[in-house]
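[Q] Does anyone have a clean structure-token version of this?
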Amino acid sequence: MGEKLLKKMNNNNYKIINELIEIIAYENINNIDELSKYQNNFFKINGRVLSHDEQIEYCKKIIKSNIRIKENIDFIDIQKIGIMKEKINNNNSDKETTRLLIQLMSLLEENMMLPYDAYNLIMNNEL
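[A] Here you go.
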């Protein structure tokens, strides 16, 4: 899985790909189904896995409530964060919202909570 990701690496997604490869290696994930299970484990409440829409809404709440920006983030990334946070409030497609959330989590140095979605978007040249 990691080798496939490396082939898709570009200037816009290298940080996200590095995070994914780290997760895949550390968690010993061997296929897309295991990556999906790994993501769903983030969203398990009282034994119930949240639907994908609920997962997205949960991540949106995390991003909206995150008002701190780490000191080492440069000014251009701070501007990107502001623009992306505004875009999340628009009526985007599910795919666009997911893409924005993944990018924001990476820029804000939050845990990668949507690795399955990130992997699929990267493999489809959409991230």
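[Q] Thanks! Anything notable?
[A] The radius of gyration is 14 Å.
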